[in-house]
UniProtKB/TrEMBL annotation:
GO terms for molecular function: acyltransferase activity, transferring groups other than amino-acyl groups; transcription corepressor activity; zinc ion binding. It is found in: Nucleus. This is N-acetyltransferase domain-containing protein. The keyword Repressor does not apply. Pfam families: IDM1_C, PHD-1st_NSD, TDBD. SUPFAM superfamilies: Acyl-CoA N-acyltransferases (Nat), FYVE/PHD zinc finger. GO terms for biological process: regulation of transcription by RNA polymerase II. Its main location: nucleus. Signal peptide: none annotated. Keywords: Metal-binding, Nucleus, Zinc, Zinc-finger. GO terms for cellular component: nucleus. It comes from the Eukaryota. Residues 319-451 form the N-acetyltransferase domain.
């Protein structure tokens, strides 16, 4: 029984349920919730936020005994550095400015015994280089910086995937997907001629199986609707990934702007809305937003370079794995959460996560809450994975992360935020102002490939 829900920012609490067929739900089926963002709100004072200080019953009472979610705990768990290992901050002239010891939650300064994050320890040492990982070195004679240690973890992880995991080439040996990209169930499927996507006829609102060659809409020109887009004769939007024939763009736009983008190698966008979203979210990845009370909101994105947000994304993945059971996709054989967070690309549309973002909320450098963000079009953004560490739960931190995300998306013109939910968690979302998806919303979202796990 497929259930889909929508979340709205209005105070309407009417709940509707799409019963679908009466067959039992297959394992892994989740609910979808959607939140409308075009609601004006009074700007909140970020500095006055005070989270509820509810402490779980199993809390040990000491922050040092709590399992931290920091870059340090990430490296300690992988045996790259040792807990309580001696480190020091060295400036460009080679002078040691400050000494300390690595703990799971940060660096404990030898002079004041306070625990600092990477950036805070650099500031404490009186430096303004803003490259803490490169200038904090292990005092073990190896000369390794914390930046070198982070690279060591990334290199080891890549080797592990190549040896024990399925490489992209082996995954692509399977020509077509075994489940429908709309309902994620098997059965009699029609196959795209150009990509591995498969579909039920009824899920595409078709009366019968198409005659001749058939192409999935993502493999067709968005203007003429024809497939077989030959490389060099088409252009793709940098944000939505939709493809267009050069000739179709020329006839429709009567402008050569798209051609100038191709010749100069710049990003091209099919609408100004996509351009605004692309550069707007990109700007957020280069900064962090301080929310007060030692809370920091960050937007991360993987670009294939381990040095670019790689360490923070790995910590975010650890949070997901501690909160949820690992789920492997039937087509790729890989961990879904890892593919989503690291934005891995695929020819199969339903597991193509290139361009995804990850949002983190940190408290004193400790990653408390994590969410993943997938932009589908100008109107809809999906947040398929949300997790809060057990030690940080029941303090309203998920609400803080969501409020900041909604505000930023709304400013970029996004209208709706889609979110999957377990039936048991529905009450949690309705308490946050959510309501079930209407039939109209369901029909509009059928054209989007939402994540199912």
């Amino acid at each position: 029984m497929a259930l889909r829900f929508a979340i709205t920012a209005t105070k309407m609490k009417t709940l509707m349920c799409d019963q679908g067929d009466q067959s039992p739900p297959r394992k892994g089926k989740n609910l979808k919730v959607l939140k409308k963002l075009l609601i004006s709100r009074k700007p909140r004072d970020k500095k006055t936020y005070k989270p509820c200080m509810f402490i779980p019953s199993n809390y040990c009472g000491s922050s040092s005994r709590r399992k931290a979610g920091t870059i340090f705990s990430w490296m300690i768990d992988r045996n790259v550095v040792s807990s309580m290992a001696n480190v020091y901050y060295r400036n460009e002239a080679g002078t040691r400015l400050m000494k300390g010891r690595i703990r799971r939650d940060g660096i404990e300064c030898n002079c004041c015994c306070k625990v600092f994050s990477l950036t805070a320890f650099e500031t404490h040492a009186g430096s303004t280089y803003h490259r803490p990982a490169a200038f904090i070195l292990l005092d073990d004679g190896t000369g390794r910086s914390l930046s070198d240690c982070q690279k060591q973890v990334d290199t080891g992880k890549c080797k592990l995937v190549q040896i024990n995991g399925k490489s992209p080439s082996s995954c692509q040996q399977r020509l077509s997907d075994e489940v429908c990209s709309v309902c994620f169930d098997g059965g009699d499927l029609i196959l795209c001629e150009e990509c591995p996507s498969s579909f039920h006829v009824k899920c595409l609102d078709l009366i019968q199986v198409p005659k001749g060659h058939w192409f999935f809409r993502s493999r067709c020109c968005r203007i003429c609707g024809k497939g077989r887009l030959v490389e060099g004769c088409c252009v793709s939007c940098q944000q939505c990934k939709h493809r267009f024939h050069h000739i179709c763009l020329k006839m429709k736009t009567k402008s050569s702007d798209w051609k100038n983008y191709i010749e100069t190698g710049k990003n091209w966008f099919c609408t100004q809305s996509y351009e605004k979203i692309f550069f707007g979210l990109g700007n957020f990845t280069r900064k962090q937003i301080q929310l007060g009370n030692n809370l920091t909101w960050k937007l991360l994105k993987s670009n294939g370079n381990p040095n670019y947000h790689g360490d923070k994304l790995s910590v975010a993945l650890d949070v997901m794995h501690k909160c949820f059971e690992r789920s492997k996709d039937s087509y790729t054989g890989r961990d879904v959460a890892e593919d989503v967070i690291f934005g891995r690309e695929s020819k199969l549309k339903r597991v193509d996560f290139k361009g995804n973002y990850t949002v983190t909320l940190e408290e004193n450098g400790d990653v408390a809450t994590v969410a993943t963000v997938m932009v589908h079009d100008e109107r809809v953004v999906e947040m398929p994975l949300v997790a809060t560490r057990f030690s940080h739960r029941r303090r309203g931190l998920c609400r803080v992360l969501l409020n900041e995300l909604e505000e930023n998306l709304r400013n970029l013109g996004v209208e709706k935020l889609v979110l999957p939910s377990l039936p048991s968690a529905l009450e949690t979302w309705t308490n946050l102002g959510f309501s079930k998806m209407t039939d109209e919303d369901k029909s509009r979202l059928l054209q989007l490939t939402l994540l199912d796990f």
